[in-house]
Amino acid sequence: MNRIIHVGTSTPSVESHVPTLCTIVPPHVLDRLASAEDADIAQAARRTLARDAALRAARRAGVAPALPPVPGSSRAAAAEPRRTIYDAEHRTALPGTRVRGEGEPPLRDATVNRAYAGLGATHDLLCSVYGRDSIDGAGLPLNATVHYDRDYDNAFWNGGQMVFGDGDGRIFLDFTLALDVIAHELAHGLTQYTADLAYQGQSGALNESVSDVFGSLVKQRALGQSAEQADWLVGAGILAPDVSGEGLRSLKAPGTAYDDPALGKDPQPARMADYVRTSSDNGGVHINSGIPNHAFYLFATALGGPAWERAGQVWYDTLTGGELAVDAEFADFSRLTVKAARARFGPGGAEDEALVKAWSTVGLPAEEDD
Length: 370
Known about the structure:
By secondary structure, this protein is of the alpha/beta class. 39% of the residues lie in helices and 9% in strands. It has ten helices and twelve strands. Helix 4 packs across helix 5, helix 5 runs parallel beside helix 7 and helix 7 runs antiparallel to helix 10. The longest helix is centred in the middle third of the chain and has 23 residues. The protein is globular and about 55 Å long. The N terminus is likely disordered.
């Protein structure tokens, strides 16, 4: 039976599709933390919620980040990353002070260096594996700001750059500690420049899921892990030591990433039978993403080996193939992935069989209706 939580007076419609803020920590988690008995935890969560609300309002109004131009208009070599890291110095003006550019040596600030390396690892996956020159396919510079605000419990993509908070130290730690969080946020840019999936309902959950998938692939490739070796967690390492949890989400076992008195219990479903209907969080985009996430995990582990090679290629082909509608639902996506798998690897093979089975397991169709 479908679950219903945090139900409001209406459900977001596709007609309301506007550019929005894509955050790694969902609002329902921060809402819970905002009512925590610990005053420091609650204050940090309320501060983060207020900041996120202001940023979302700015995006709806079409306010884009003002980034300085990258010196030099020509590129030294094709498909080389152009990274710039800024330091907000615990303020909120973006982008902040430029502290490290492409090819410049590491700083003493480990947060800056992690952000720089994470942008590079994501660019390298797109370039080396899928032949894509940056997230837009045309060498877009990659910009990130660290040390955003004080006790800021989030990281986000705002349509033009990535931003990372340092966390409150009680629930969340520095958000650059997890490579997949860096890659997750940058993957929102990849989606923005390809299918541009509307950030609401099932299309929004697909948007989040694509970021979880590519975030996981970047981490696995950087660690040299096979699908069987990977932990399939998103955000492992950003939860403080006293928090009962492994990460923010689990592709392997949605709904099990955390179970903590302050955070609550991970609400993600793994199958359509447990789909959550809610008007919170743009229709549950961070919750229902567990369903396509789990399908990808099943597909990748059935094939084995490096998940970015065959399984990741199918997801990339689907995202960039031009047939995925802005308002696509899960069933649309599942069918298009099968079409993409057959186009690349042929029908009836191991990829075809594993993918059809994965979608069937989570309760979604993989074939067109007769």
